[in-house]
Amino acid sequence: MQQKEEHLDEKELPQKSTKEYVLRLFITGATPNSVRALTNLKKLCEVYLKGKYSLEIIDVYQQADIAEREQLIALPLLIKKLPLPEKRMIGDLSDTDKVLKGLGLKQ
């Protein structure tokens, strides 16, 4: 069996951040999409933001007032509060490339 070698330009690789990230994940209980979003986000944070992030998980069924203040349009929803600019990402966060771009870790 042959192993395929990939050569990536360093600019294409996600950069580990030195900034502090403040993240809020809005979920709807233990629905499959919410569980996937939480699992995917935790994995991503441990690889790319280890020790440099805070994550608040908000179940809109239990904390509707917070959800109302944030003017949510769809769930699950990840809001990157810091570093600015604030970004919002909807879905189960399974597209790692898209999430890294949304967090500003990849161009």
TrEMBL record:
Gene Ontology BP annotations: rhythmic process
Limits of the KaiB domain: 24-105
Gene3D superfamilies in the cross-refs: Glutaredoxin
Pfam families in the cross-refs: KaiB (PF07689)
InterPro entries: KaiB-like (IPR039022), KaiB_domain (IPR011649), Thioredoxin-like_sf (IPR036249)
Protein name: Circadian clock KaiB family protein
Origin organism lineage: Bacteria, Pseudomonadati, Bacteroidota, Chitinophagia, Chitinophagales
